[in-house]
Specification:
elongated, 118 residues, mainly alpha
């Protein structure tokens, strides 16, 4: 089974179990898959890879949004915007990693290379 077929099966399988499609495969993961990266879905990723990927993705988007908005309104230095975005990214990444690992355990999911079980 190819990676794309496994992802399609995962979306169908967990969708039937009541999970939202964007919980199963968030937009960042969908983008990375379209770019050709064969990374594990978040419910099958390790804690630290989730924290890193989710945190970096969130921090980059938040920083790009915050910088123009805050720098012209409050004359904030770029370092302040960067520090705020970095702190938010770390907290968001850790929170999402805890959530996805907890959710995967509750669902009793195997490792990605063993999914779907025969």
């Amino acid at each position: 089974m190819t990676h794309d077929e496994k992802v399609a099966f995962l979306l169908d399988d967990l969708g039937r179990r009541g999970l939202n499609r964007y919980t199963i495969a968030p937009p960042l993961y969908r983008l990375l898959w379209r770019l050709g990266l064969k990374i594990n879905p978040p419910l099958f990723a390790s804690f630290w890879s989730l924290a890193l990927l989710m945190g970096v993705g969130y921090g980059a988007i938040l920083g790009l949004i915050m910088w123009p908005l805050l720098s012209w309104q409050q004359n904030s230095p770029a370092s302040g915007v960067f520090a705020t975005a970095a702190l938010a990214a770390v907290l968001f990444g850790l929170f999402m990693a805890v959530y996805y690992r907890w959710r995967a355990e509750r669902l009793g999911l195997p490792r990605w290379d063993h999914y779907p079980a025969a």
